DNA sequence: TAACATTGCATATCAAGCTATGCAAGTGGT
DNA sequence: ACCACTTGCATAGCTTGATATGCAATGTTA
């Protein structure tokens, strides 16, 4: 009974994510954007002036990963980092006008990727798929928390 | 009507894949393995002596990515690359005894990740989820082919 | 207030993915 | 045999993800 990658949820999720990323990259490269900055932009388009930590929490990305992404975004003229006057440690992230101007085209590109990927699926199948993804994400986040904070008394993991 | 990342299949797929990778990484690091080599090992455990190209086709990975992965695997004593006597271009990939010895523990770790992730889902929900992932993968692969081979006469893209 | 802990961010280093490019080894046509 | 094309792989250089570590600024506490 050999392990079959094509029936492994983890392998399929990895493959699926790579295909989504390839598609998105192809569509947003003409806008001068890349896949790694996209999630940060989605958050910032909704709410400017966040700290790095707030971005990290909203996106479930490790802090050094976000720091590097923000450095690239600053280099590419998408954001500016400004010191918080009240707390000398904090750098607040502000979008440039150029980044704000890209919101419409960029989100349209992302919606096109989703529409492309989900074409051929019924409404209920799409809804079920996304609901299941969210449930698994929640499960894996909880088990990651267990790894970080090992056993707070109840439900010892044998 | 702002784009909502938490309802975007692409964003969810990316997040899900990162969580799967974190979990797998935590479990196979003690074995001296990493997530990038894992898919290659799954294929090679089933069938040794493949060429790089054959691995690429089975895993849908770009060729230079696979070349780098194989270099790391060789460095870490998991594989050996041997010139094909019949074709001087080809390097056939052979597992070392060390790599073969890891199959049981490694696949058990991967199964544990999947079991962990899918805990709380019913059998039919798991089956539906994996079926949908496979359908979307197929859809995205087809549309990538369209990008590479643009319009062979029929079904021009607008 | 001095000592210690925490918080926010940066840097170094690596893995894992990608595109672009180069080159050697085969293949095919003339 | 020679030229052009194709195939298989490697290398260079980038992005995106991670861990480990350091450090300055802030909080806390004796």
UniProtKB/TrEMBL annotation, chains A, B:
Q: Name one GO molecular function term.
A: DNA-binding transcription factor activity
Residue stretches making up the HTH marR-type domain = 9-138
Q: Per its UniProt record, what Pfam families does this chain match? A: MarR_2 (PF12802)
Recorded hits in SUPFAM superfamilies, A to Z, give: Winged helix' DNA-binding domain
Asked whether the UniProt record includes Repeat among its keywords, one would answer no
**Record keywords, A-Z:** DNA-binding, Transcription, Transcription regulation
Q: Which InterPro entries match?
A: HTH_MarR-typ, Tscrpt_reg_MarR-type_CS, WH-like_DNA-bd_sf, WH_DNA-bd_sf
The organism's place on the tree of life at top rank: Bacteria
Name under which the protein is recorded: Transcriptional regulator
- Natural source organism: Imhoffiella purpurea
């Amino acid at each position: 009974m050999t392990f079959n990658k094509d029936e492994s949820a983890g392998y399929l999720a990895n493959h699926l994510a790579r295909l989504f990323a390839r598609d998105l990259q192809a569509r947003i490269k003409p806008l001068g954007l890349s896949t790694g900055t996209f999630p940060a932009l989605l958050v910032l388009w909704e709410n400017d002036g966040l700290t790095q930590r707030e971005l990290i929490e909203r996106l479930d990305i490790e802090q050094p990963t976000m720091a590097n992404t923000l450095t690239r975004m600053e280099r590419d003229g998408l954001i500016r980092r400004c010191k918080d006057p009240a707390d000398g440690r904090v750098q607040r992230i502000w979008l440039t006008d150029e980044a704000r101007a890209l919101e419409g085209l960029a989100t349209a590109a992302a919606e096109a990727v989703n529409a492309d990927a989900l074409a051929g699926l019924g409404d209920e199948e799409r809804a079920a798929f996304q609901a299941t993804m969210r449930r698994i994400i929640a499960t894996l986040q909880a088990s990651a928390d267990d790894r970080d904070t090992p056993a707070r008394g109840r439900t010892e993991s044998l």
